[in-house]
Amino acid sequence: MKNLKIAFGSDHVGYELKPVIMEYVKSLGYEIYDFGTYSNKRTDYPIYGKKVGEEVAAGNYDLGIVICGTGVGISIAANKVPGIRAACVSDPYSAELSRRHNNSNILAFGSRVVGSELAKMIVKSWLAAEFEGGRHQRRIDELAAEDAHDSKKFDKIKNNITEI
Ligand code: RB5
C-alpha cells in the first residue's frame, strides 16, 4: 500500500507527536503533508479535524491521521465532514479492525493517551490493513446514506438485509 498520500493534522497538544509520526509514516514509503497546526500556540482542534476531513473527502489525500490530547475532539470534528469515517483508537487491534470492518479513512489518537512507540504500532497496523468489503460494505452504505440525510435509502438498505 505505498504511493498513498496521507494528510496530517493536530492541535497544539498533538503538535509534538505529529512530526514523529509523520517521519515514521514517510519511512514506510508514504507521501505526507502537514495541514497544521504549526506551533504549540493554543488553538482549536475542530480547525484541523475539519481541514484534514475535507482534504480526504475531496480525494486530495487517500487517508488522514489526526492528533489532539485524547484524539476524541479532533475525530469528532473530522467525522462531521460527509464521507469521513474517523476512528479514535488507542490500540493496534482497534486500528486494524477500523480499516477491515469500518473502512476508516482517518485515524485519530491522543498524545496524552499513547506514547510515540505505541502510536507507531497503531499507525503501522492501520496502514497495513485493508477493507474487507462483503457484509461490511452494507454498513458503510448505511453510513453514506446518513451522510446524505437520505433516510429512504438508509431504510431500503436496512430492509433488504439478507446476510448478517
Ligand atoms: C485541548 O486542551 C484538548 O481539549 C484537546 O487537545 C483534545 O484532547 C480534545 O479532545
From TrEMBL:
GO biological process: D-allose catabolic process; lactose metabolic process; pentose-phosphate shunt, non-oxidative branch
Source species, domain of life: Bacteria
Active site residues of this protein: C68 (proton acceptor), H101 (proton donor)
Isomerase listed as a keyword: yes
Entries under InterPro entries matching the protein: RpiB, RpiB_LacA_LacB, RpiB_LacA_LacB_sf
Pfam family, one: LacAB_rpiB
Keyword match Isomerase: yes
GO molecular function, one term: ribose-5-phosphate isomerase activity
Gene3D superfamilies: Sugar-phosphate isomerase, RpiB/LacA/LacB
UniProt keyword terms in alphabetical order: Isomerase, Lactose metabolism
Binding site for D-ribulose 5-phosphate: D11, H12, G69, T70, G71, V72, G73, N102, R112, R135, R139
Record family assignment: Belongs to the LacAB/RpiB family.
Official protein name in the record: Ribose 5-phosphate isomerase B
